[in-house]
Amino acid sequence: MRDIVCGYSCSSALISALPQSSFQSSSQSSYSYGPQQAKINRRDGAGGWSPMVTDREPWLQLDLRERMEVTALSTQGRANSEDWVSRYMLLYSDTGQAWKQYRQEDGVGSFEGNTNAEGVVQNRLSQPVRTRFLRLVPVDWNRSGWIGLRLEIYGCSYKSDVADFDGRSALLYRFNQKSMSTVKDVISLRFKSRQAEGVLLHGEGQRGDYITLELHRGKLALYLNLDDTRLRFSGGRVAVTVGSLLDDQHWHTVVMERFNRQVNLTVDAHSQHFTTRGQGDSLEVDYELSFGGIPLPGKPGTFLRKNFHGCIENLYYNGINIVDLAKRRKPQIYSVGNVTFSCSRPQLTACSFVSSSSSYLSLPAPAPSSSSAMGGFSVRFQFRTWNQEGLLLGAHLNPDPHRLELSISNSRLVLSLHSAGHKAQATAGHRVNDGLWHSVSLDSRNLQISLGLDSEPPSTIDQWEQLHSRGSFYFGGCPVSGCRNPTISFQGCMRLISINGQPISLQHVQQGLLGNYNELLFDTCSIRDRCLPNLCEHKGRCLQTWGSFSCDCSGTGYSGATCHNSIYESSCEAYKLMGSSSGFYSIDPDGSGPLGPTQVHCNMTEERVWTVLSHNSTEAVRVQGSSVLQPHIMDLNYSASSDQLRAIVAGSEHCQQEVVYSCRKSRLFNTKDGRPLSYWLDQSGERRSYWGGFLPGVQQCSCSLEENCVDMNYFCNCDADADTWSNDSGVLSYKEHLPVSRLVVGDTDRSGSEAVYRIGPLRCYGDKSLWNSASFYQDSSYLHFPPLQSELSTDVSFFFKTSSTSGVFLENMGVSHFIRIELSSPSVVTFSFDVGNGPMVLSVKSHLPLNDRQWHQVRAERSVKEALLQVDQLPLRFLEAPPNGHTRLRLSSQLFVGGTSSRQRGFLGCIRTLVINGVTLDLEERAKLAPGVSPGCPGYCSGSSSLCHNRGRCIEKSSGFACDCSQSAYGGPSCKEEVSVSFERESSVTFTFQEPFSVMQNRSSQASVWREREREGSRAREDMAFSFVTSHSPAMLLSVCTFSQQYIAVILARNGSLQIWYQLQSDRAPDVFSPVLRSLADGRLHRIRLHREGLDLYVQLDQDVHRKYRLSSDSELVLIRSLTLGKVMRTEGFPEEVVQAGARGFVGCLSSVQFNHVAPLKAALLNRGSSLVTIRGPVVQSNCGALADTISSNNLLDQTSTSSQDTDQRDSQSDVALIAGVVTAVSFITVCVLAVVTRLLYRRQSQRGEPGHHKDKQQQQQRSSEEPAFRTELHLHHAMRDSIKEYYI
């Protein structure tokens, strides 16, 4: 706010000297309660203004007699009374006709008022208002009394130089020389416009430079070219746009600042910074600049259509006051057309329809004009809105029962003529809900009703007889008694209403002299652009209606109400904890931060989880002919950006990169002065000349560190400059320098000199954030960090374990704002905050105590749209933000973790993995210096080693630990053992979900399902994984169906190829994907993982097939009914190919089936009597997955060891491979022999059964005769089945 202008204060009292005529009001209880009594601290009359109790829309208006700069206002209740205003809106206007609501920085359109009659409450304006008229509209008041008001306005006088342009005029500023070339420009002005199009400024030069400021569709567009020949000849001019709804007939401030190619463009409080294209730094304009329009329609190079129609004031070009020069008729200024120097009063006044259910305007139909010989009726008006639906006009017609409706439906105009049992329609327009003014004409003549929209050709409906209006026309809606079939009321603005050629006075309507209305605001169009600024993060698309906005997060990689949360995990380590296997994954190293996701390869075949990032040069490169002056240069481009690489490296425990360098007569260092002849650049572009190990700054190779160089006189083998091949390969492991961004080779220009190099991918392991923890053992202890700098959105996640009954996890305070997360009772976690709308509280209550000394996860988020809280897998709780409330969280004190600033209610226990807005707080480092806090957490489950696998949860015990495998598809002591089941032709396992629920969250009712779905429409997500072995096709592997006619089916086609079917919208054809064309019905174990995020479907098959597909819809599965493994009994809605696969069922082995957080196969084995599980046919637990997994692991180890060796060791590798092949073959033959023997023993044991069952046995064997030989293998360890059954925690 500007309090001091040119050395004087802009805070003078402005009301005290005003005459009584400057005060007006909507009504007054009596003369002594009149508006003239509303001066602050005055006790004249009744001691202030009070309206009549019957006043539906009370207001108090001030005329400051001239335009003033207003900076603050104070309010007071009526003296000696119980009357005061507790909240009010402030409107302003230059003319007293067209009003605009003042909004604070965060968009709040009201001010807090008084709490008693005598106290004075002052509100300072964040942005000063230059205006003549002010209007205060009470919103809330003392309900025990009535409205009472006294006030004072503070500010100072305001002077300006104004020019009025009528749409056919302009001002030309001519230079003293032929052209003007500038490297710095500052252009500032204020304008108010009567239309959405128009040129404010234009200039161009012969070399192709140009600058244009114009209004386009209500936004300000800047076109700027600095000697960019590509733009000059291509004809494509790119605009930078700022602002919205700038044709509202109110003043807007524009500032454009340019220095060389850097440009700032600001409209009101919204700014855009950009860099111009091309290489030019100066703007060269010939002869003149034009303001307000382009005077010659055929001027070369122009693409503009309309001149500006409105007023411009304080127009400065590089410090020159253009309007002042024009007023003084200086020769540099040439006026074209009629330019005047006072702003004319606008004649366009509007009204606002503010309620979607009860707003309407009822107007009687004047008699048609005498010129309309054929009778009928005509209606004309203009409207603007953001809503896709709404009733614009309704009327009853003669003869009865004809009825006419004009509405917005699906963003188009629809005219409907209803008669007895018939309905005729005409449509017009496209996206009429774009916030712009649209002109509508409706005429009935010559047995036709025509609908006109803007400049489009009219649409018509034919009539059998001439229709006439009967009764009133209803605009925007209608009363209950006036509508036979009520529709959604219109929310928006209307103006220029005329019926039968006669204009309608909205002032007469407001005064009760004409028609009737409900829920209308007069003399103002209160539309606002809720997408300016765009509060959707990460390039989310903002969509809006009259009262709210929403975010379309499709394709962003983020989800949530404002696209704040990353849909990807932060590391490969996190994916492994979810139970994932090796493959390509998208990781988001900073979570909800600005970096975005990147694809990496996660290698989970070892104890450590490796993150592998490849680059563009993975093959060996041979170098010859390079020198120090003309070196060979290889720039490495990685699959991630430099910022993402830095984040991944910083968050890893260890990183390394292999550099294989072979040389012949090619040195790495100059032996004379030690200068490097070859070197590499690190992630920051710094030159590095060490070639192995983790000691930076030492010009050595690995052989020197290991003391095994060929010639110990040198630190590198290549520096011996031998005529034979040498090798200086090494592994770079100083992670602050990784990855290698460029390699420079400079000594291969001598005869016989050459080098061969290969740079491996960047490989990192360990996630430093996952186990960063601290223990709090005093209730007065805490860790402190800088205050949160996240005004609009904040997300917090962490794990805790405690035995205490309560304690504060996190707290950050401001002057009046705060945010806090705490354990408020043994089973309740509470998230509370205040952004200026009063304290908001969210709580999650667990049915089990949370102070059980086990790890529990907390996730809390607060945005401008909502707040949410989740604990472990308990149902998500969320709270919508109040409409039109404060949105910015302003915090000033330090962030306290594990305690509070008052050192009371501190937390006793452990906190780990505290992540705020994608940044992991280093608890361990802070804990080293804080009393009562120690780094790390005691217990078996607090280390970084993965004690429990595949989503298993580590449970602390008094003497050790146990793994909770209830959320895992695996079993065993550490959730690593496959849970496998063998299926026959008629076998099936169906898991029925307990209630219809959204995939993302199990809800308590269908209503909450739909609310959740609407709130997080872009968070559609499925995660499926399973293994199978079969020799039969077609086959149904897995199917998921919903109550809303959606389904997922994974089948083997007739040829054995894998097919994935997705049907997400019933009105579209299903999506079908085939990752591989070869047959998977080959009797081998295959692992499949499907992962969907919105439109993206990721498919991993075994270890070598990774596919990404794009779905036709990002809809989520709504109201899931069941998941079926094997034969499908209900096939309605499935296509023929899926029906055939479902009818054939599945013969073979399924293991480790996971669908999101459900393990249906495991549930079937453990809950055979449950109503949620239906088992048909023979379903037998087996160990096929474990057996096949062992074979696959051995093969994978062979492949891994083979690929990790150097190329010059291939001969020895082939020998090893031959031996390994022989061993594998012998092992396979032995297994087969055992299988046959076991099968014979099994048959003999069967024959020894009871005679009464012999016939049944034969029938069963006949039904099973088509089953493959691998069935024997499945039961090799049948006798051990009881011992491998797992009883899960």
Any overview of this molecule?
Its main location: membrane. The longest helix is centred in the last third of the chain and has 38 residues, at 1210-1247. The protein is built from 15 helices and 87 strands. It is globular. The protein starts with a strand and ends in a 5-residue tail after the last helix. Strand 1 and strand 2 (8-9) form a beta hairpin. The chain is mostly beta strands. Mean pLDDT is 83; it is low at 1-7, 231-235, 995-1018, 1191-1226 and 1239-1289. Strands 45, 46, 47, 48, 50, 53, 54, 56 and 57 form a nine-stranded antiparallel β-sheet that branches.
Tertiary shape: globular
Amino-to-carboxy terminus distance = 63 Å
Low-confidence stretches: 1-7, 231-235, 995-1018, 1191-1226, 1239-1289
Give the helix tally: 15
Structural class: mainly beta
| β-strand amount | 35-45%
What is the average per-residue confidence, as pLDDT, rounded to a whole number?
A: 83
Give the tally of β-strands: 87
Radius of gyration: 38 Å
Q: Please give the largest β-sheet.
A: 9 strands, antiparallel
* Percent in helix: 10-25%
Subcellular location: Membrane
Keywords: Disulfide bond, EGF-like domain, Membrane, Repeat, Signal, Transmembrane, Transmembrane helix
Family: Belongs to the neurexin family.
InterPro entries: ConA-like_dom_sf, EGF, FA58C, Fibrinogen-like_C, Fibrinogen_a/b/g_C_dom, Galactose-bd-like_sf, Laminin_G, Neurexin-related_CASP
